[in-house]
Amino acid sequence: MPGERPARHDWAYLGADWAEHLRSPLNPEVLRLATEWQQHGRPFTVARRDMPDLHDELRLGLTLPDRRHLALHVARPAVVRVLPPPTVAEARATAPATWQPALEDVIALGTVLDLTVGVFGSLAWQLRTGVTFLRPLSDVDLLFAPARWTDVERLLFGLEAVSRRHSVVRLDGEVILPDGGAVSWRELALEPEIIWVTGPRGASPRTLKDLRALFPAES
After folding, report:
1. Percent above pLDDT 70 for the chain
2. DSSP class per residue in the chain
3. Which residues does UniProt call coiled coil (predicted)?
4. Of the residues 83, 106, 121, which one is the last residue of a structural domain?
């Protein structure tokens, strides 16, 4: 598959010969489930890489409606199509009516901050596959990539306000950092001295000062 390397939370569609590109063996049951999923034309999510992985390798995930999680390790030629995370505006049509006011406020917050608001997790799986994933207690997992630290601060303030107004659904998700790492927005809002960051190849603790330094200086 030509082009940029798919990023974590992207959606990867596998070709008919995908099993020929496996880099790690699968047990028969996982192979059967993954094959059936691919044959229905449904995508997999791109997961973070393991440290030993080569540049032409991908880790993919499949969360089944019954909440079982499957993991695939493939070479890039297994993937024939990639889509980015859907936006909340795209995914809201598949959400329950009771969630709509909260999602409208999230979309409005993104507009004010000039941020594209992405979504992953159950709401995204339901949109991308047409299969029912949402349950009454499902969260909404959001994705934001602010360009400035002041935008991060405004985002966190806005998300906390939306969460207080709409307790019917829990808003979770991640802030994507300039270096490609990601951090829980709820954890970041607590302003801890040390915060856990998920990177392209694993997770590690970092200081809040380190995270601020990733963003360009502002006058």
Report:
1. 98
2. --SSPPPTT-EEEEPTTGGGGBSS---HHHHHHHHHHHHTT--EEEEPPPTT--TTEEEEEEE-TTS-EEEEEEEGGGEEEEEPPPBHHHHGGGS-GGGHHHHHHHHHHHHHHT---EEESHHHHHHHH-S----TT--EEEEE--SSHHHHHHHHHHHHHHHHH-TTS-EEEEEEPTTS-EEEHHHHHT--SEEEEEETTEEEEEEHHHHHHTSPP--
3. none
4. 83
